[in-house]
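User
Class, as today's exercise, I want you to study this protein, comparing sequence with structure tokens, and judge whether sequence predicts the tokens.
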Amino acid sequence: MDEAGNPTPRTAVSLSDPATLVDPYPAYRTLRDTAPVHFEPSFGAWIVTRYDLVREALRDTATYSSEFGDFLAQAQKIAFRSAPAEVQQRLVALNGRMIPLPPTMLTLDEPRHTQFRSLVSQLFTGSQVRRGASTVRRVIDAGIARLAAASRADGHATADFVAAFALPVPLEIIADRLGIPADDREFFNEAAAAAADALRLTPLAPEQMVHRAQLAVDLQQLLVSLVDARRETPADDMIGILANATLEEEDRRLTHGEILSILNQFLVAGHETTTSAFAWGMLILCRNPELQGEIRGDAARIRTFVEEALRLEAPVQGLPRLVTRQTQLGDTTLETGSLVMLRFGAANRDEREFENPDAVDVRRAKAGRQLAFGSGIHHCIGAPLARQELNLGFAALLGAFDGFRLDDGPEPEAEPSFILRNLPRLAVRYRPRAGAADRLA
């Protein structure tokens, strides 16, 4: 124990180091082998890195609670305290205009978790996702057209893949699912991206902090206005469903705060994670060019490739759980009230579960065992839609273009974040395939 009464770490590895978060995989390997349940003093949390232990905790929802909202609130307070005093005053004023968000799906246990989750689950059933495939294809084709427009006289093209495709495609699709009007899409896209930025460690200038806070206020106002409009004129989109849903156990409609809480989770889970998966998947193709021809036109191989991209670079690297009773996880005793961080990104590269875990293998059996979408009752509700976007997206990209490789310039690098893993930009070079322009015409 240290002077504060916390356990003494058994290894010098620290996930609070931004450089480690940019490339966490060597640290994950060390932790899996030497301290698979490791106390991280800077976060006051136990880091769980081995696949079997992460899965055990995910399945035991009675012992490992999802009611970890205080952890996220503490992270926001740390960012707030870094701002100058005058900026803090402006942030406090803006925060006072925000509708408080009560816990709903992500940060609730049973039975309350399912009460909220069931309200929107109808939008993400397999049949419902299949019915929306034409919309997904239309949005993907628009992204393909943006990439094709960058073609040069020599037949090659260069683009920031994130800005041209990986970011706008999932944003447009989730905006459509939510029911955001066309006139509000440009603002919605900026505000939704800012909501995800709040989970990163990249320092912001004071004015950027204020701008992001203002976006959050304005986004809430937009969503509340849409909820009220849907209560007057119902619509078959997520906002419409939530606006008119009833919590049967309490015989009441959802409050504005409850609706905003659910929508806020979908803003991140519905676009940020898919954006990251597209970007990391493209980087894998650029670094393994032989894969492009191997999986092109082969739906089964593309499905496995998508699972491998999710496994190798989990867009959500980990989420917390609260220990509700003294328990044993591996060789470690955890006391009631302890915070654990389940690291999906580490579990997905555990050689005890995946042979040759650091390599992409489009013939890997049971590639879907990866934990990028979690497991158990909190398995990502939008996973069917994300998989659809990724499978259709990579099929279309490989059908339209050839020879993807990294463009000249600095190596792509992740933004440091304890929760998310994303590539802010990805400069690629490629060439249109014969006949692709006719398909897009």
Notes: The chain is about 50% helix and 10% strand. Residues 263 and 397 are 30 Å apart (CA to CA). The first strand starts at residue 37 and ends at 40. The longest helix spans residues 256-287.
